Structure formats: structure tokens, C-alpha cells
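Continuing the series of single-chain predictions for the mutant panel. This is the parent chain; the variants come on the following pages.
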Amino acid sequence: MKKMTILDGKKIASDIENEISLEVQQLLSRGGRAPHLAAILVGDDGPSLTYVDNKVKACKRVGFESTLMKFSSTMAEEKLLKEIVRFNEDEDIDGFIVQLPLPAHISEEKVIETIAPEKDVDGFTNQNYGRIISPHHGLLPATPYGVMELLRRYKIPTKGKHAVVVGHSRVVGAPMGLLLAHEGQATVTQCHIDTHDLGYFTRQADILCVAVGKPNLITADMVKEGVVVVDVGINRVEDATKKRGYRLAGDVNFDEVAKKASFITPVPGGVGPMTIASLLLNTLHASKVRTEGNNKL
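Parent structure:
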């Protein structure tokens, strides 16, 4: 059996950041301005704070301008929508995100659909989602975009392969299936956590992408030899041996499945860094569209 290879998202994301940084330097040398990514954070959710902070740090590394607006969890929906409209109209901002999840009293759908599609660097709006299958798609959902880039840079073929996606969320699972089918030209089976006899489907996968938020859902008996595994899940699992009282685990039992896989992402250090890298790529593209009128990714 071929030796297993770790899909090192941290390394590939670093490579992408270096490429973006070089492009920003060239842009500035021609008298242009650095792309500007903004973020809105409502409330004090711990993981969201960490994630947004990582985005701000990534902007600094590549030479982007960044703005972070923090609001109380009691912020009124109407006020948040007004802030989004203000960001839509701000000519200095190329792209922005509203960090999810939002407090229960705020409609995520209403918030997402208020974001201008050309500034929607998370790729969540209905317009950008619908354009995934267009030859000239818009800004792609960041995590699936990152997965496709990871596969491409490791030269993993997708054309004609059987890709099984476990998870059907609007953020990852559903667009992942669309990208694998249309851009990757793979044969795609879309499953979710309640799929009857899930292992029947996952054992057929040449490429298995899992994004359901259930630690260690996929075990060795559920995959075939040589499978390519992309684990999007990131879960907190209680662990008394850790100072913080927990450890991070994916949706795939890494120790078991790695023995059969040809390629596999670690958690953490796999898909997570690629999501932020894709956010930067989307921001760079949004900036180019606004300044150069080039609408092709």
C-alpha cells in the first residue's frame, strides 16, 4: 500500500499567504492600495473571538488592511443591518464578514442576504451560492474553496472519482458537493449524519469529506484502503490530561483511519488554516474586481 501523506493545511495556507503577500507588494509598487478586509463580531463567543482574531492576524501577515467591529450580544437586529449597509457602501472596504453564529434574536438569513454579494468574502449569500455552478462563479464559500485548493496543490485527482460528502450544511457540506461535482468533475454522493447505513456509502468513497460536528464519527471499518480523507470537523472533547480540560478532535477517528488512507487532513492544522487562506483569496479577488473589473476567479 502507498504510504499515507498528511494533507498539511497549515503549510499550504502559509504558501498561499506568501503568494498573496507578494501580489500585494507588487500592487503597492504600482501605486495601488492594499485590499481591505473587515469583520463584524456580535457577542463574546469564545471560538468566534479566536477565529476573528486569527483572520486579523492573517491580514497583517499578507499586508491587507483590516477592520474589526465588535458589538454587544444584545445588539438589535436593525442596528446590525444598518452597519452591514454601511460596510456595503464603504468604498475603502473590499470585502467583509459577519462572524457566525449570531445571537438567537438576530436572523442569520436576513443578515447574510443584506451583505452585498461582491463583498461577501465568506461566500454565504444566495447569489454567490447559486453561482457555484456558473462558469463565472462569484466568491466561493471559504471552507469548500479551501478544500478544493488543498486537493489541487497536493495534485489529488478528482475527475471521475467517487467523492462522498458527509454533511449537508449551507456553509460546508452542500457547497462542497457542488464544487466537487462541477469544478472537480467527480461523481458525488451527498450524505448526512442521519443517512441510513452511512458506512455503506463511505466505504465506496475515493475521496471522503466529513463535516457534521460529531467527534470520531468515521472509523476504520467505514473506509476503504487508499481513501483520501478530508476532515472538516473540529470538536472539543473532554480530556482531563490537558491543561484546558479538553482537546480538539475531528469527525474522523484519525488514528484508526490514517492506517488505511492515502491522504488525510489532521485536526487541527488541516482544513482550518485553508479556510482563512481562502478568505484572503476571496478578498484579493473582490479587490481586483472593484479596481480592474475582472470578474473571473
